[in-house]
Amino acid sequence: WLVYSISKNAAFCFCCKIFLPEDLQSLGGTQDWKNLSIVLNKHENSPAHLESFQKWKELETRLNTNTTIDDKNQRIIKAETQHWQNVLERLIALIRVLGTQNIALRGTSDKLFEPNNGNFLKFVELMGMFDSVIKEHIRRITSHEIHNHYLGKNIQNEIIQLLATHIKETVLSALKKAKYYSVSLDCTPDISNIEQMTLIVRFV
């Protein structure tokens, strides 16, 4: 339980520093190096130290056996974190498949179980019929337990952007390693008559 502070050049009792109120003198540490053995012996047998030592060891035992007062809350937090990770993994995988197949994501509605709500939400509804994670996620949405459900257009755009960035970095990494490459530029007006430039890079 004895610790030394380099910055204060003093000896401290670890368990008393943690478990005793701040206004107790034992927190100030000691610099009485001449009488250190007497001071430590007196402190070690004091009721305050024995009580702090007992609290310290009891907490250590509870932490090792997962029986602290907040253990239930910690388990709930871990389960909730795992749930959201599982949801995001499935949504990212779904957007990857739709993007790979060049299928549009959105429709005229952005709500579940409505007509014309787009391919993305329809596939989420389909996954909810067979996948327990998405089924639970849909239940939370429809029962209004959650408001941020990660099914809206903003999160879709963000995931698409992250995937596009990753693909671009992969292509550029391969391009930089290539010995020979060519660059081709082409411009064409879009539906609003604004010129759009396409950059094509070919490499061996």
If you had to describe this structure to a student in words, what would you say it looks like?
This protein is α+β, with helices and mostly antiparallel strands and 204 residues long. It folds into two domains: 2-65, no CATH class; 73-151, no CATH class. Helix content is 55%, strand content 13%. It has helices spanning 14-19, 36-44, 47-65, 71-100, 118-130, 132-142, 153-177, and strands at residues 2-5, 10-13, 181-189, 195-203.
Keywords:
single chain; 204 residues; alpha+beta; two-stranded antiparallel sheet
Number of helices: 7
Give a count of the beta strands, DSSP E runs of length 2 or more: 4
Order of helices and strands: EEHHHHHHHEE
Largest sheet: 2 strands, antiparallel
Radius of gyration: 31 Å
Fraction of residues in β-strands: 5-15%
Coarse morphology: elongated
Structural class: alpha+beta
Uncertain regions spanning at least 5 consecutive residues: none
Question: How is this fold's topology laid out?
Answer:
Elements: E1 2-5, E2 10-13, H1 14-19, H2 36-44, H3 47-65, H4 71-100, H5 118-130, H6 132-142, H7 153-177, E3 181-189, E4 195-203
Antiparallel strand pairs: 1-2, 3-4
Task: Provide a quick synopsis of the model.
With 204 residues, this protein is of the alpha+beta class. The protein has seven helices and four strands, in the order E-E-H-H-H-H-H-H-H-E-E.
